[in-house]
Design goal:
Elements (H helix, E strand, L loop, with lengths): L2 H21 L8 H11 L6 H12 L4 H23 L8 E2 L2 E2 L1 H5 L1 H21 L6 H15 L4 H11 L6 H25 L6 H28 L2 H4 L5 H4 L5 H5 L1 H18 L8 H12 L3
Antiparallel strand pairs: 1-2
Helix pairs in contact: 1-4, 2-6, 3-4, 3-9, 3-15, 4-6, 4-9, 7-9, 8-9, 9-10, 10-14, 10-15, 14-15
The structure holds geranylgeranyl diphosphate.
Geranylgeranyl diphosphate (GRG) binds next to helix 4, helix 8, helix 9 and helix 10.
C-alpha cells in the first residue's frame, strides 16, 4: 500500500465515520435502546471497503464528494445490517464482530433483528432524501440498484444459497453463483452508486466499470475464504475458521488455499483489464483493488 493511498483511504474513512455519526439517530432519541444498538453496530469499526470503492468510482466520474458520501453511507448501512443478521443464532450464530460482541450478544436477538431492519430502512431513506444525481431518472436507478443488490436476487438470495449449502459439495459454478450474490452484489452496487453521482461517463464506460465491480466483488469473497482459513481471530476481529467448523463449501475447501489465492490474482487482472480504457484516471480504483486482494483482515 503506497503512502498516498493510505492517506486517501484514511481521510475517506474519517469522512464516512463522521457522516455515519451525524446521519444515524442519536442514542438519546426514543427508542433509545434501538438507536444505541444501531450506533454500536455501525460506528467505530470495519474497513469501509465499500465506501472506499464508491469514492474511487465517484472520482473517476467526476462526482461531487458530498453526493458520494451519502451514497457510500447508504451502502455501508446495508452492509452493517447484513452483518447483524448474519451473526444471529438462526444464521451463522457468531459472538464476535469487528473485535467486539455481536449485536445480539450485546442487545438481545429481538433488538438485533430490529437493528438490521432499521439500518436497511435508513439506507433507502437517505437515498430518497438527498439529491444525489443529475437527473431523477439516475437517482431512481441508484435506488433500484441498491434494492436489487440487497434483495433475493442479490445479497439475501446469496445468503439463502449459503444456508442451504452447509454440508453439501458445491460445484465451482454453484459456489461462484453464491458468492457473486452474497458478497459481490453489494460491492458492485457500491461502485455503481458512486459512479452514478457523477455524469462524465457514457454507457460503454459504465458497463466496463460494472464488469470491474463484478470481478472485485467475487475476488473479495475469494480472499475472505482464504483469510477465514489462514488468519487468526485476533487479526480478523471475527471468529476465524468458521467455514471449516460449519462444514461450509468455500474456495479453499474446493481449490485449496494456494489455488484460491491464484484465482484472486486472476480476478484482479481481469478487473484491471476492465479499467484499461480509463488509463490513469482509474488509478484510485486500482489501488482499492490491490487493497482488497492483499488485505490481511
Ligand atoms: C435476513 C432478509 C435477511 C437477509 C440476510 C445476512 C444477509 C442477509 C446476508 C449476509 C451477507 C454477508 C454477511 C456476507 C458476508 C460478506 C462479508 C465477507 C462480510 C465481511 O465484510 P468486510 O470484510 O467487513 O468488509 P468489515 O467489518 O470490514 O466491514
Amino acid at each position: 500500500m503506497t503512502a498516498d493511498f493510505q492517506d486517501w483511504a484514511r481521510s475517506h474513512q474519517v469522512r464516512i465515520e463522521n457522516s455515519l455519526q451525524t446521519l444515524l439517530p442519536a442514542a438519546d432519541i426514543a427508542p433509545e435502546r434501538l438507536h444505541e444498538a444501531m450506533r454500536y453496530t455501525v460506528l467505530g469499526g470495519g474497513k469501509r471497503v465499500r465506501p472506499l470503492l464508491a469514492f474511487a468510482a465517484g472520482e473517476l466520474n467526476n462526482a461531487n464528494e458530498e453526493r458520494v458520501t451519502i451514497a457510500a453511507v447508504a451502502v455501508e448501512l446495508i452492509h452493517a445490517y447484513s452483518l447483524v443478521h448474519d451473526d444471529l443464532p438462526c444464521m451463522d450464530d457468531d459472538v464476535l464482530r469487528r473485535g467486539k460482541p455481536t449485536c445480539h450478544v450485546e442487545y438481545g436477538e429481538a433488538i438485533a433483528l430490529l437493528t438490521g431492519d432499521s439500518l436497511q430502512s435508513l439506507a433507502f431513506q437517505l437515498l430518497a432524501e438527498y439529491s444525489l444525481a443529475d437527473t431523477p431518472k439516475v437517482q431512481l436507478e441508484m435506488i433500484r440498484r441498491l434494492a436489487q443488490a440487497a434483495g433475493s436476487r442479490g445479497m439475501a438470495g446469496g445468503q439463502a444459497v449459503d444456508l442451504a449449502s452447509v454440508g453439501r459439495a458445491l460445484s465451482l459454478p454453484e459456489l461462484e453463483f453464491m458468492h457473486i450474490h452474497k458478497t459481490g452484489a453489494l460491492i458492485r452496487a457500491a461502485v455503481m452508486l458512486g459512479a452514478y453521482c457523477g455524469s462524465r461517463l457514457g454507457e460503454a464506460r459504465l458497463a466496463a466499470l460494472d464488469h470491474f465491480a463484478k470481478c472485485i466483488g467475487l475476488a473479495f469473497q475469494v480472499v475472505d475464504d482464504v483469510l477465514d482459513a489462514e488468519a487468526t481471530t485476533a487479526t480478523l476481529g471475527k471468529t476465524a475458521g468458521k467455514d471449516a467448523e460449519n462444514n461450509k463449501p468455500t474456495y479453499v475447501s474446493i481449490l485449496g488455499s494456494a489455488r484460491a489465492r491464484e484465482l484472486a490474482e486472476e480476478l484482479r487482472r481481469e478487473a484491471y483489464a476492465s479499467l484499461e480504457m480509463f488509463e490513469a484516471a482509474a488509478g484510485r480504483l486500482r489501488q482499492v483493488t490491490d487493497f482488497i486482494i492483499h488485505r490481511e483482515f
